[in-house]
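User: Can you help me understand a structure? I only have the sequence.
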Amino acid sequence: MAARLGYLLYWIASWIAVILIAAGIVVWLYFAQPNKDLLGLVIVGWGIIVWLGGRAIRRWLAGR
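Assistant: Let's start by predicting it. Here is the structure, written out as tokens:
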């Protein structure tokens, strides 16, 4: 049961990460001033952190 929960939380975190990374790229490409605004890159960084957190939860609960 814990393994299934681990996979579910991993997929939820993966989709949240995809949304954050896509939003960060859009903000960075379309709304940022060149060489001044790093908000888009910060959002992408948070997406990567969420994705890694999901992988850690899967590893911890599912053992894979």
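Now, to help you interpret it: The chain has a mean pLDDT of 91. Helices lie at 2-31, 39-62. Let me know which part you'd like to focus on.
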